[in-house]
């Protein structure tokens, strides 16, 4: 099974999802927002862990029939789809077989996964444990009695065991330093990735190997030019007799700036010359706990609390922060990569990171500005790879939303005048050139992106006192209207990435009042939303396994599903903010119903308990915010308020406490705990710091400044927030 989610009921059963309901995450060891991860490696899609082939629609087909691994690799994606940079470098394999058996897949037994720690036992009886620091990894292997135990490090391997999934180093060098130490650098996808290794293997031999043959007496291997057709595997091996219960530890430090810095990272985080597994594991666990302690909830069933904690964990794995590690510019400072799904994470995950770790949020923005300075554009995606492949198809001007929020929140350490220069220039690149000439661009979603980018840039320009520039930018920000078809109230016919015009028609724009007026007013807009969310509709038949053919040779359900024009139910992120569009039309009760249905029926505390790709943490961040009764409107310094899933909750934000309290809260189990649909609750009234909150929103500054949000809940919809709407630029009286 691709997922352990039970069949949805009620409103959730009317939603249609194109992708597999599997999160594409992995259980390996990760450090919060760190540079390094480590996990058991099978070569499966897309993280290297697991059993599935590549899948982009429907249920995935298995690559293997069991959980297994050929070793333990470093640098994995988290929750992504087909990004085609699959990492999994420096595979470490403990063995009692000859080197010729390298690559064998052994079944995994007794798996254990905790924040910062992963363990499993191989068929060979070797107990394998891995933990990581921010820039380091530590392996510990406990051997059975064996005449010849081995720990093999493969410098040449990378990617996945799927078609076109393998990655090959362009250049490489490695050196055995003796006394359990070695170092080397591989250039993968144009990026130099260096490692320093220190092994606690007393009395074991230490040798280089090439093409599965030992290099006796050799201490260095150099490869100046590697092609796929000429590549032969190469690496390092530690080998010797193993007593029953003997442990071997391997410390590894990584750097994008050479082996000396990789060694320094080991020394800084772990120290040299001693075993450090337990210390590293404890330190990383404490780091995770420091983040978990910032978000506390009371109430909720065990399953709901488990899903919430897991979502918070997934939200803080990516992006990767490698301070002082940029291989593309020589100066120190922030460097952030694995911003692999910017078109998703800007809506939910970046606001969550900025709330829980404001300094990290500021560092992310600083890194984006530096990328723009060095490469000429803000990235739409930024991986550990060199080149111009920055996902321009998916979106435009997305960094502008995060920058606008950062400016309005007053994040420290950013030169906003310099940021404004880059924001303005970036609006003129790629699709922005057509937008400048024609005031509209296809794919039509880029018209919305660019108009919103102009709005976000205008916010900073006006804040910095450049009124003339702000006026010019605001004029172009109004061209979002060119993307819509007035007769239908929907976006114009165009090409759409992973969705259709309905999925993108309910974006939360900077002028939702005018957007609703364009659609024909509140009643017509609500009717459109009701149709989109399946009110009064029959349950939908979901996709099975490819090729989706029925007896007539048609693609069974696939075309029908697209033709439904239905909410994708958190399975895919283009419409993840659409439930909150009801707030702008005076129907927060509808928001409550949809969010409750998603939280109840689409997540479970099980393997595969996510409704779709986690997309680097965007989906999990959605779950965190929705459970708290909040949703960030990215780029507008705004949070919409809804019925929380917990009785009380608190967030520690930059030393300030934001407290959410409810009256009349009723516990509701999630669908994995009961087969009976549970009714939602609705906000009856709310106060913020003791004052009535008549509109369903607060500002980002109010959230970050701390305070007390008190919400009265009841079983029926009320008049709360039906008259006072969230702010729109055409109605400044609500600002």
From TrEMBL:
Membrane-spanning parts: none
Task: Name a GO CC annotation attached to this entry.
Answer: cytosol
Q: Provide one Gene Ontology biological process annotation.
A: glycoprotein catabolic process
Q: Where is the Glycosyl hydrolase family domain?
A: 261-715
**According to the UniProt entry, where is the signal peptide?**
none
Q: Which GO terms describe its molecular function?
A: carbohydrate binding; peptide-N4-(N-acetyl-beta-glucosaminyl)asparagine amidase activity
Matches recorded under SUPFAM superfamilies: Six-hairpin glycosidases
- Region span, Disordered: 714-735
Glycosyl hydrolase family 92 N-terminal domain: which residues? Answer: 22-159
- Protein name as annotated: Putative alpha-1,2-mannosidase
What's the source species for this entry? Answer: Jiangella mangrovi
């Amino acid at each position: 099974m691709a997922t352990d989610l039970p069949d949805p009921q009620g409103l959730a059963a009317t939603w249609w999802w194109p992708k597999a309901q599997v999160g594409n995450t992995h259980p390996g060891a990760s450090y919060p927002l760190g540079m390094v991860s480590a996990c058991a490696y099978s070569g499966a899609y897309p993280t290297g862990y697991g059993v599935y082939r590549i899948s982009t629609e429907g249920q995935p087909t298995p690559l293997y029939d069991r959980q297994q691994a050929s070793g333990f690799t470093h640098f994995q994606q988290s929750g992504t789809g087909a990004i085609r940079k699959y990492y999994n470098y420096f595979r470490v394999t403990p063995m009692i077989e000859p080197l010729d058996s390298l690559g064998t897949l052994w079944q995994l037994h007794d798996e254990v996964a905790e924040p910062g720690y992963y363990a499993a036992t191989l068929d060979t009886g070797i107990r394998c444990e891995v933990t990581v620091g921010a820039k380091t990894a530590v392996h510990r292997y406990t051997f059975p009695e064996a005449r010849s135990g081995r720990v093999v490090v493969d410098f040449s391997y990378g990617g996945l065991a799927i078609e076109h999934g393998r990655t090959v180093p362009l250049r490489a060098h490695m050196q055995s330093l003796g006394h359990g130490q070695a170092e080397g650098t591989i250039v993968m996808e144009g990026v130099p990735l260096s490692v320093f290794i220190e092994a606690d293997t007393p009395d074991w031999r230490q040798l280089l190997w090439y093409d599965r043959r030992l290099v006796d007496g050799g201490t260095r291997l150099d490869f100046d030019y590697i092609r796929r057709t000429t590549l032969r595997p190469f690496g390092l091996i530690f080998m010797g007799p193993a007593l029953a219960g003997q442990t071997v530890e391997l410390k590894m430090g990584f750097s994008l700036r050479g082996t000396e810095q990789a060694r320094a990272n080991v020394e800084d985080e772990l120290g040299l010359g001693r075993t450090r597994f337990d210390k590293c594991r404890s330190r990383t666990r404490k780091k995770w706990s420091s983040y978990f302690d910032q978000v506390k909830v009371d109430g909720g069933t065990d399953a709901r609390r488990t899903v919430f904690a897991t979502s918070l964990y997934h939200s803080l794995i990516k992006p990767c922060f490698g301070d002082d590690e940029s291989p593309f510019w020589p100066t120190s400072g922030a460097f952030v990569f694995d911003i692999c799904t910017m078109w998703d994470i800007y809506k939910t995950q970046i606001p969550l990171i900025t709330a829980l770790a404001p300094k990290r949020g500021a560092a992310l923005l600083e890194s984006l500005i530096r990328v723009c300075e060095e490469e000429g554009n803000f990235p739409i995606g930024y991986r550990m790879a060199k080149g111009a492949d920055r996902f321009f198809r998916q979106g435009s001007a997305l960094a502008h939303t995060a920058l606008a929020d950062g400016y309005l929140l007053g994040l420290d350490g950013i030169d906003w005048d310099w940021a404004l220069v880059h924001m303005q220039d970036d609006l003129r690149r790629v699709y922005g050139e057509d937008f400048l000439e024609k005031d509209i661009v296809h794919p039509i979603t880029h018209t919305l992106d660019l108009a919103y980018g102009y709005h976000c840039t205008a916010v900073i320009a006006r804040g910095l006192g450049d009124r003339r520039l702000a006026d010019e930018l605001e004029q172009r920000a109004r061209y979002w209207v060119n993307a819509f078809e007035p007769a239908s109230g929907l976006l114009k016919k165009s090409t759409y990435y992973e969705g259709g015009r309905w999925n993108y028609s309910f974006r939360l724009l900077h002028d939702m009042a005018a957007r609703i007026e364009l659609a024909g007013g509140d009643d017509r807009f609500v009717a459109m939303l009701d149709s989109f969310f399946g009110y009064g509709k029959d349950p939908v038949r979901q996709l099975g396994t490819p090729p989706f053919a029925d007896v007539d040779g048609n693609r069974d359900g696939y075309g029908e599903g697209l033709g439904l024009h239905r909410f994708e139910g958190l399975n895919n992120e283009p419409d993840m903010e659409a439930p909150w569009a009801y707030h702008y039309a005076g129907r927060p009760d509808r928001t409550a119903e949809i969010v409750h249905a998603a939280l109840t029926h689409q997540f479970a505390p099980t393997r595969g308990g996510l409704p779709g790709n986690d997309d680097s943490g965007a989906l999990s961040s959605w779950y965190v915010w929705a459970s708290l009764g909040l949703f960030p409107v990215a780029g507008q310094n705004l949070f919409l308020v809804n019925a929380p899933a917990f009785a009380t909750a608190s967030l520690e934000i930059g030393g300030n406490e934001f407290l959410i309290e409810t009256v009349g809260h009723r516990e509701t189990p999630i669908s994995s705990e009961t087969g009976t649909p549970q009714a939602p609750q609705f906000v009856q009234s709310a106060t913020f710091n003791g004052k009535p909150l008549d509109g369903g929103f607060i500002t980002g500054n109010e959230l970050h400044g701390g305070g007390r949000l008190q919400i009265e809940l009841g079983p029926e919809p009320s008049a709360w927030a039906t008259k006072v709407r969230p702010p729109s630029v055409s109605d400044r009286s609500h600002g």
